[in-house]
Every structure is written in structure tokens, then in C-alpha cells.
Design a protein that fits this description.
- β6, α9 and β7 form a beta-alpha-beta unit.
- The chain is built from 14 helices and eight strands.
- Strands 3-4-2-5-1-6-7-8 form an eight-stranded mixed sheet, with helices on both faces.
- By secondary structure, the protein is of the alpha/beta class.
- The chain is globular and about 55 Å long.
- It has one domain: 3-Layer(aba) Sandwich (Rossmann fold).
- The chain binds adenosine-5'-triphosphate and magnesium ion (MG).
- The site of magnesium ion has 5 residues, from α2.
Length: 303
């Protein structure tokens, strides 16, 4: 058990080192950068419903916030938006109201903890496709200003791989795929990775294994996702971490308090804090650092 735990930790650390070496090399190649884009957009997906995407999104946002980051959490699950429920807040307005010109971005953002804000999107992102060019430029300026004030934007996506979800995934800088030991989750994780790579072959993809009972579970799930990606898609995916099956998380959901606040020392909270540290310490490998870099919102709007 301990051996397996250290193997997985080593894999995660090794990924961190590889990525930071890559980015040092990239920084020299692109030296001097015109501007440095600070925000990293990370979409949380997985294909299958109920694998823990929203819980990971909310708690990871809090964990990244607690180590000094400014984080925006975008709830992009239009059908069943529930990041607000998990945080125990009830936003009245969403991105759709900003697009319609009724509200400003600041009016819709809900502060959920120090440095962490929730951006309810309603059907907002779908509506971005249908707005006029002038409204589009105006909105883009506002959204990009918001980007500049955050270090991270975490995007909680809906289950499935609809066109909307795919659009979000290929617009984000990095993807976290949440998988569980359930065999259908592994199949859905693979299907999601396949679609991402079809549109965006270089996208960095990380795997979090949720709901594990033992470390062996996590290792097995990661091995399977990794094997099929290598074999059929010729692509490596990176292990980012695992989250144990945890009754305290279930209780926290019932209480509408993020587990990180409900039970900071719960096994799931500790695991999510470790994942946040991994993300925080890793230099983003593929983030363009020049002024030409397109923002997440620009990519979403112009897709
Ligand atoms: N680590 C865990 N331990 C125990 N239960 C968990 C864990 N992770 C998730 N769950 C259970 O799964 C439920 C669904 O989690 P969550 O809403 O985060 O999934 P989701 O992937 O966002 O679902 P959807 O696809 O519907 O958006 C939680 O309410 C909780 O009961
Ligand atoms: Mg969800």
C-alpha cells in the first residue's frame, strides 16, 4: 500500500519537474516576453455524471485560494448548475444577464471565500455565440479584465461531451479529467480525452481519481486511462492526484458547505489540498507568455 502511494506521489512529482523544465526552456526561447498572462484556465471534466467534478472544482478553488491565489470559479454546468448549492449561496444573476446588458460582471460574481469568487454562468456561455460584434468586443474587454485579476479560473463543466462542453474544454489551458473506479467512468474519461485531442492535440491533460477506497484503486484507474490514451491516441496523460471515498464529503454536500470548510482535516480535504499544491507549484507548460496569447474568453467567443 505504502509502496503504491509513493509510486503515485513520484509520478505526480515527476510530472511537476518535467513541466517546469519545459517551461524554463520555453521562457528562454520566447525571451523577452511582451506581457505575462497570469491566469491559468483549468476545466474540470470527465464525461460521466456524478464522478465528483463539482466537488473537486469548488474545493480546489478554495484550496488554491487558501495558498494565496485569486481564483474565479466558473459554473459552466447550465443544466444542473450546482456549484452554488455546494457553497451554500444563491446567486440571483448569471453571465447571461451580463451578456444581455442588464448586469455588470461584478454584480454577478459571488465571493465564496477570501480571494475566491464564483461566477454563475446560467446559459451564458451558450449565448456568447449569438451576440453582435460590438457587444462582443465590449464584453470581451470586461471578461479579459476579470482574467487579469485572477491567477486561476476553474471551470466546472457539465457531464457528457456536448458541443458546449467540448468548446469549453478546448478553450481552457489545461484539463483535469475526473475518473472513478467505476468501469463506465474509465470509458467516459477515455472518450472525453479522445474528443479533446481531436480538436486540440497538444492540450495538457491531468487525471484525478476520485472515490478511491485504497491506493491500489487509484493506481489501477490511472493505469487504465493512461494505457488506452497511449495505445490508441498516442498521448501521455498525467497523474495529478487521488481523492478517497469520504463520508465527510457526503455530509458536507448535505450541509451545503464545501468539505474543505466543513472538515478541513477530512481525508478528501487533505487530498484536495495536495492536488492544489501540485497545481500551484507546477509551471504551466503550454501557457503562452507573449502578448499574442489568446485569453480563455477570446477563444470561447471566437470558436
Ligand atoms: N470522494 C468522495 N467520497 C464520497 N462521495 C463522493 C466523493 N466525491 C463525490 N461523491 C458523491 O458524489 C456526489 C456527486 O458529486 P458531484 O456533484 O461533485 O459530481 P459531478 O461530477 O459534478 O456530477 P454531475 O455530473 O451531475 O455534475 C456527491 O454529492 C457525493 O455524494
Ligand atoms: Mg457537477
Amino acid at each position: 500500500m505504502n509502496d503504491q502511494a509513493s509510486t503515485l506521489r513520484l509520478i505526480a512529482q515527476n510530472n511537476t519537474q518535467k513541466n517546469s523544465m519545459y517551461s524554463e526552456q520555453q521562457a528562454t526561447e520566447t525571451n523577452p516576453p511582451k506581457t505575462v498572462r497570469r491566469m491559468r484556465s483549468i476545466a474540470i471534466s470527465g464525461g460521466k455524471g456524478g464522478v465528483g467534478k463539482s466537488n473537486l472544482s469548488v474545493n480546489l478553488a478554495l484550496a488554491l485560494g487558501s495558498i494565496g491565489n485569486k481564483v474565479s470559479l466558473l459554473d459552466a454546468d447550465f443544466g444542473l448548475a450546482n456549484a452554488d448549492l455546494l457553497c451554500g449561496v444563491t446567486p440571483k444573476h448569471h453571465l447571461g444577464h451580463v451578456i444581455a446588458g442588464w448586469k455588470e460582471l461584478d454584480d454577478i460574481a459571488v465571493q465564496i471565500s477570501n480571494g475566491v469568487q464564483l461566477i454563475p454562468s446560467g446559459s451564458g456561455i451558450e449565448e456568447l455565440a449569438n451576440i453582435s460584434v460590438s457587444a462582443h468586443t465590449n464584453l470581451l474587454h470586461k471578461l479579459e479584465a476579470m482574467e487579469r485579476s485572477s491567477n486561476f479560473m476553474l471551470i466546472d463543466t457539465a457531464a457528457g461531451i456536448s458541443e458546449n462542453v467540448t468548446g469549453i474544454l478546448i478553450s481552457a489551458d489545461e484539463i483535469i479529467i475526473v475518473a472513478t473506479p467505476d468501469p463506465t467512468s474509465i470509458v467516459d474519461a477515455y472518450a472525453t480525452i479522445k474528443i479533446i485531442l481531436r480538436h486540440s492535440p497538444e492540450k495538457p491533460i491531468f487525471v484525478v481519481v476520485n472515490n478511491v477506497v485504497g491506493v491500489g484503486d487509484a493506481e489501477q484507474v490511472f493505469e487504465q486511462v493512461s494505457y488506452v490514451s497511449k495505445r490508441f491516441l498516442k498521448r501521455e496523460v498525467n497523474f495529478l492526484g487521488m481523492i478517497p471515498n469520504d463520508d465527510l464529503l457526503v455530509e458536507a454536500v448535505r450541509e451545503q458547505i464545501p468539505v474543505l470548510e466543513y472538515a478541513p482535516e477530512a481525508p478528501s480535504s487533505r487530498a484536495i489540498k495536495l492536488i492544489a499544491k501540485q497545481i500551484h507549484s507546477r509551471n504551466p507548460a503550454d501557457l503562452a507568455t507573449t502578448g499574442e496569447a489568446q485569453s480563455f474568453w477570446n477563444r470561447i467567443i471566437s470558436k
